[in-house]
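Quick one - first record:
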Amino acid sequence: MKLEGYAEQFNQEVLAAAEVDAISRLDAFTQLVIERLTSAGEFDDGQISYYRKTGLEVSGWSAAGEEDVLHVFITDWRDEIPPPSLTRTQVITLLKRLTTFISRSTSGLAAQLEESSPVWELADLIERQAKALSEFRVYVFSDASARAIDLPELDPIAGVPVTAHLWDIDRLYRLDTSGLEREVITADITELHGGPLPCLAGPKGADHTVYLAVFPGDLVAKLYGQYGSRLLERNVRSFLQARGAVNRGIRETLLKAPERFLAYNNGMSATAADVTLVKTADGGKAIAAIRDLQIVNGGQTTASISHVATKDKADLSKVAVQVKLTVVNPESLDEIVPSISRYANTQNKVTGADFSANHQFHVRVEELSRTVWAPAPDGGQKQTHWFYERARGQYADELTRARTPAKQKQFKTMNPASQKLSKTDLAKFVNSWEQLPHIVSLGAEKNFREFMLRLADRNINPDVEWFHRMIGMAILFRSAEKIVQKQQFGGYRAQIVTYSIAKLAHETQSRIDLDGIWRSQKLSSAASDAIAEISYPVHEIIINPSGSVRHVGEWAKKLDCWKKVEEFNWAPGASLKKELRTRPDPKTSQPESNEGLAGATAEESELINWATDVPAEHWFGIAAWAKDTNNLQGWQRSIAVSIGRLIAQNRKPSLKQATQGKKLYEEAQRLGFNSP
C-alpha cells in the first residue's frame, strides 16, 4: 500500500472512530495515534484533553510514572487527501503553542480552568510535579507529510529538559506497514559507552546465539534514558507495568553498596535481532551495536538504575550488571521471546498468560467473529459480522484484499466499521460488565493487561453463546457512550460510561438480558433510560475526589471510587425489571460426593460450618443466577448446587467444596448477587 492509500484508509478510520465514540475528528485522530504509540511502547496509554486559547494549545497527554517523564501532545489535523506538506516552520509554531501551554501551567494556569475538565488535571499536574520530572517530551501528531525535517532543540521549562518528537503521516505509515508494532531500537554501544563492550559467545543454536556481558551502570541508565519503556515492551514489559515499580531493595543496593550490585543482583536477560561484533586487542569479541534490543527480564533493575541516576544523582561508576543477550532469528522472535520472558524471569514472577495476539483466546474470538452472523436489526434481511481485530490493522488488510470497489463495498456492508472491535475494546467491555470500572479507568493497555491476568486464572473457552453475550456488552458500552455524550457533562466520558455500566450490572445482579441485546442489536429504551439516570450521580462522584486524591483521572482509578458508586441508592424501574433475565431451576444438577470432616483442623471445620450455615436456597440462587447471567464457571455453579443439596439433606459439604464455595460466594457477592 502506498502512502496516499494509507492516508485515505487512516482518514476513514478517523471518521468511523469519531462516529462510534461521538467525539470530534481531531480528538479521534489524536486517540488513534495514542493507541498506536502505546502499542509501540512510546508511552503508556494517554488521555485526550483538547484546549486552545490565544498562543497556547494542547491535545492530550500521558504520564509515565516509572520514568518521571510527562508526554504532552498537540494535534495538527488537516483532513486532506492526498496529505498536504507540513513545513518545519509549521512544526515550530505547533511546538511553541504546546510549550507555552506547559510554561503557563507551571505558573498557575490551572487556577483559570474549570476543575472538572481534563485539561485542568494536566495543568495542575504540571504545576505541582514539574520539579520532580526529569523530562517533558512534547509530540506533534499530524496527518500531513513532513518528509525529512530537523526538529528544533527546545529550551528547558522550569529547569526541566524538553525534547521534541514528530509523528506525521509518513512515520505512522512506516509504523503500520513495517510488520512490527514498534520502531526497532538500534543501540550504538560504541557511542553510548565510549567503546565496544567485551563479551563471551555461547554455542550457536539453530535459531539463536547467546552472548554474556557485563554492562556498566551508566550504560544501562543511558539506554533507559534514551529509549525508556520501549526497551521493555515485549510480554514481560506488560507484566512489569501492570505490577511493578522502582524496587526498593535494588535502589538501596545502588545507593549504599554499588560495588556489590553485580554480586547481589540477578542481572538482565535481553534479546536482539542482530549484534555488530568487533575484535578486542587480545583477540576476543566485543559488542559495538545491538539491533532490536529488548529487555525481557530485569525491567525493574533497568528502571531502578535510571531512577537513582536521574532522581538521586547517584554515582554509578561502581555499578555493573550481568547481561545475557540472546540474538534470535527474526522469524523465531514471537515463539522464543515469550518463553524467555516466562522462564528467565525470577525476580518478578511472570504468569503463563501470553499477552500476544496469538493467545488461543483471541484466536478463538477472531474465528467466531468471522463466522457468526449478527441478526439484522428491526426485522431486516441484512446480516453482518462484528469484526474482531486480533492484531491491529486486520480490518484494513481485509479491505485491501477486496481489490475492486464493488468488493470493498460488499466487505464494508458485511463488516461495518462501526462493528469493528479490538482486544483492548473487548477487555473494556468485559471488565466494565464484571464491575471493575476502576481497572478500566487505568487506560486501555493497563486494563487489557489486567484482563489477561484474570483470564489466565479463569480458563475461558469462548463459544457462540459467549460471543453473543460479549457483543451484547459491546452494544451496551457503545450505546452508553452515546447516551452519556448527550448529557454534556463536559469531560470524563470514558470514566462515567464504565462506572455507569458497572453500577447497572451490580444493581441488576448482572441480569441485564445480553442475549436480548444481541438479538435486537440495540439497547432497549428501559436500559437506555437507566444508563442516563445512573450517569448523573456517577458523574457527581467521579468529579469530586475524596481523601488525598486530587485529580479526577486518578480518583477514577481507585477502588474507593467504585465503592462510593456502589453505595449510592438506585434501583431498576418497573419497565427494566420486566426485561431482566429470570432464574432457572437448578435442581437437575448432580451433587458431588461429600468427603466429610475427618481429620479437619479447627480452621477447616470453621470453614465447613460457615458453608453449612448458608441456607440451601442461597446456594441454589447463586447457581441459578450464575447460569442465567453467564457469571462464574460451570464447575463453580455445580459446586454451589452440590453444597445446596447437601445442606437441604442436613449434611455437611466437604472441605474442598467449602473452600471453593467460599471463593465463588465472595465472587458472586462482588458481582452484585443478593440472596433470595
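second record:
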Amino acid sequence: MPLRRSFAVALSLAAAVLLAGCAALPFGSRATASPPAGARPADSLLARTDLQRIVDLQVRREGRTLSGLLGSTDARVRARAAFALGSVQDSATVPALVRALADPAPLVRGDAAFALGQTADSSSAPALLVALRGEATEAVRGELLDAIGKTGGRADLDALLRLPLPPTSDPARALAVARMVTRGVSTPEAWTWLADRLSATGLAEPVAYAFARTPGARWTPHAPAVRAAFDRATVGAMAGDTALARMHLARALGRVADPQDVPRLAAAIAGDPDWRVRQAAAGALGAPALVTVPAAREALWAAVGDGQTLVAMTAAEVLARPAAPASDAASAGAVVAGRAPWPVQAALLPLVARHGGTAAVEAWSARQTDPLARAGALAALGAASDAASRDRLLAASADADPRLAAAAVEALRARWEAEPDRAGTAARYFDAFAGALRRADLATTSVAAPVLADSAFAPLGGPSVLREVYARLSAPVDVEPMVEIVRAVGKTRDGQEVDFLVGVALDGHPAVRAAARDALNERLVEGIDVILPTGREALPPTTTVDWAHLRRVGPRPRLVLETDRGRVVIEMDTEAAPQTVQMLTSTASAGDYDGVPFHRVVPNFVAQGGDFFRADGYGGPEVSLRSEFGRARYRTGTVGMASAGKDTEGVQFFVTHSPQPHLDGRYTVVGRVVSGQDVVDRLLPGDRVRRARVQPSR
C-alpha cells in the first residue's frame, strides 16, 4: 500500500495485516538520540550559499546543471550535487555519477552511489560492483551495496554473494540481497545464502525480512529453516535485532501457510512481549489455509482482548474476513456491543453485517461521535447482501461529509463487484457512481472512476460521464482523480477513448500524460508502443526554499506533538530535506496542526496525520513539495512524508512503528522520533494532535 497523500476511509484494515516490513537506526534499534543509520554527514548547508544554490537546482529538477557540478574543485559541492541527483532521478546523469564513484572524497562516492541506486538504472550495477571491490570506507560500501540491491540483476546477485567483503559489511550485504529477491531477482543459491544466515548475529533481521516480503512459493524448500530460526528466537532471548527478526519470521510463516505452524504462531500471540511480533503472528494466521483452523481462530479471538489495541485491531480484521463461519457472528456482536476500543469493534462489523446484523451495525454507528467511526460502519455494509443496506449506502453516497460519502461509495463498489448479474442491476448503482464522480471530490471521484469503466455502465453513459468530469478538473490540484479517470477511460470501448487519451498524452501534467501513455499502450495492438514527445513536460509548481527561515529553525529543529496519548518529539534534518522541514515548521508554527487527527493508523506499519485541510487524508495544499529522497532509512520511529507519487508531498506525515526498508528512497525522510515512540505505538485512528510546536536548534 503506497503512503498516498490521499486515502480512502482511515479504517481500511484489510491491508494492515500484511503491510509491515523492515528498515535509520542500527538493525534492531528503537529510536534514540544517536544519528540514524545511513544518514548523510552534515555539510554546513545553512552556512554556504553555494550549497543552497544546489538545493535550488534540485527543486527545479535541473539534472544537467547538477551533473556539471560533479566536476567542481570543491568536494562538498560535488557531494551535494550528487546527493541532489538522487532526488532528481535523471537517467541522463548516470555516466557522470558512475565517474564520481572514483572521486577521492568518500562523501562524494557515497552520494554518487546513493544517486545511482535512485535511478533504478540496471546498467550501473556492474560499475557499482567494481567500485565496491576497491572501496575502503565502510559508509561508502554501505551505499554501494544498497544501490546494487536496488538496481542489480541476476548476474550482479551472483557476484554479490561471492564478493569478499569485511564482516562489518555483512548486514548491508544481507539487506542488498533482500532488496534483490523482493524485486524478483533471485536464484536458488541466493535463497540458500539467506537461509544459512537466518540466525546470524546482526544479519537475522534483514535476512528474515527477505522471507517475509517474498511469496513463500519462491523459497518453500527453506521453510524448515525459517521455522527453526523462529523457534530459536525465543521470548527470553528477544531484544533488538532478534525481536524484529522474529516479527518478520512470523510473517514468513504466514506466506508458507502450513497448518503445522498454527501452534507456534498462536503461542507468539499469547506470550510474546513485543507487540509487533504478536501483531505479525495474528496477521500470519490470516492466510486462507490457516484462518479456518479452529486453533487459529481461538488464538485470534483471544487476541481481540490484547492490551495493545493495534494487535487487537489486526486480530479482529482477520476474524472478520469472508472465510469466517456464521457461528462467529455472535462473538463479534458481543465485542461490538461491549467496551472494546472502537477501531477493534469497527474491524468486526463486516462479520456482523455479512450474517444479517445490519441493524446492529446501524445501531453501533448511531452511538459514534467520530466521523471516522461512522465511516467504518458504512464500509462494513459493503459486506452485507440485503437490499436495505444497499439502499442505505446509495443514500449515504451523497452525504455532505466527504468522509461518509467516500466510505459509502467504497462499500457500494464492494457490493457491485459481488453482484452476480451486473447487466441487470447496473441501473440501480449508476446514479450513485456518476454522482460521486460529478462531485469532483478527490475521495469520491477516485473511488468511482474505475467502477464506471465497467462495460455494464456503457449503455448508461459511463464513458461520457468520465470524460465530462475530466474536463472540469485541473492540475495540479486535481491530478490524482484526473489520473484515475484517464486510467478508467483506457478500459472503456465506446469509440472515443483513443482520441481522448491521445489528446491527454500530448498535453498536460506529467503524471496525467504518463497515465494516458500507459492506457494507450494497453489499448493498442501488441508491439505498438506509445512514446511521449519530449520538450512538453512542465514541472508542477512548488514552493521556493526560504533559507532565512531555515537558518532560524536550524539544522536539527524539533517538532513537539502533544497528542491525546502523550508527547512525541521529532527531530528533523534540515540538511537532508530543507523544503520539507520548511513546510512542517511553518505549518506547526502557524498552529495548523493543532486539533488535527491521525486519520490513518495501520498496525505495525505507520500512524499518519497532518491533514489539516480535510482531516481524512485527501487534503493538501494546492502547491506540492518536491520529493527530497535521502540516505536515511526507514527504521522504527522514522518520520516520512505521504505522497501520491514523486513530487506530490504536502503537509501529511507518517511515523513508522517498525522498520520498513521498502520505503527507503521512495518517500521523503524528514526526521525521526527521539522521544515518545511508545506514544506513537498507542495512537489510534481519530486521536488528535492537541498542540504542535517547533523547538529551533542551534
